[in-house]
Design brief:
The chain is α+β, with helices and mostly antiparallel strands and about 250 residues long. It has a five-stranded mixed β-sheet.
Length: about 250
């Protein structure tokens, strides 16, 4: 157990540094050059107008505006990945909608089919961040590793059980290899998903076979969650010791 925790900690540290490098890359290689170009176009236009030059500069201003708009979109996307502000402002369902929209924009070859059969009020507040992070990590894995052409996302409830499912038709992988130390590190995305599920009181099942895609399913017993929260009082939102769900997954509402 101690060696498992050490491997997970090492993997999480490497993932953290990888994410920091990615953020720095986006800011330095994509956002900063766009802003510099936009500033140059605006300053050049302002100088020409100050000199009274009659040349039409509206096209350059439009280009500058488009560049700034593109940079702002990248910054919003990056900010959403670091912390989903829309989750605080509007709730889980709009946050998932925004996440799926951004994923589709970046991965046009992958069709996303969401089936959400819940209202915002049906989802306990303490589960919303966990659900968002699980879907976010799962979609990231799909984009990076699966070579899939389609991914389906299910969110529903059945008999007081909240159910989340993410399925793709990609290349899949050999689950047995996850038992090796090397593969645990490489599969840190799946490890993060399992940690989010466990910390929020859920049970996570992963099924995959080479060339037959991957199915990720997470279950939470909402009735137990509500009862324990009522017994524990205001501090119950921090409680993560819920028993695992036992009912098999289905995509029915």
């Amino acid at each position: 157990m101690e060696s498992d925790l050490k491997r997970l900690a090492d993997a999480l540290l490497k993932r953290l540094e990888s994410e920091r490098a990615r953020v720095a890359g986006v800011l330095g290689d994509e956002v900063a050059p766009v802003m510099t170009m936009a500033r140059y176009l605006i300053e050049d236009t302002a100088q020409r107008l100050a000199r009274g030059e009659p040349a039409q500069k509206s096209q350059e201003l439009l280009e500058a505006s488009a560049a700034i708009r593109d940079a702002a979109r990248k910054l919003r996307q990056l900010g959403s990945e670091l912390w989903p502000k829309v989750l605080d402002d509007l709730g889980l369902l709009p946050a998932l909608s925004s996440l799926i929209r951004d994923f589709s924009h970046q991965n046009r070859a992958i069709a996303v089919s969401p089936r959400i059969a819940l209202a915002e009020s049906d989802i306990p507040g303490e589960l919303k961040l966990a659900i968002f992070r699980i879907v976010q990590a799962a979609l990231s894995n799909v984009a990076r590793h699966s070579k899939a052409s389609m991914v389906r996302i299910f969110l529903s409830s059945f008999e007081n059980e909240l159910r989340l499912g993410i399925e793709d038709n990609g290349v899949g992988f050999d689950l047995e290899r996850l038992h090796t130390a090397r593969q645990r590190i490489e599969g840190c995305g799946l490890g993060m998903i399992q940690r989010w599920a466990g910390l929020s009181g859920g049970r996570c099942d992963i099924e995959s076979t080479p060339r037959h895609g991957t199915q990720l399913r997470v279950f939470w017993q909402v009735q137990v969650l509500v009862a324990e929260r009522a017994e524990a009082g205001p501090e119950a939102e921090r409680d993560t010791g819920l028993p695992p769900a036992q009912t098999p997954f289905s995509d029915q509402p």
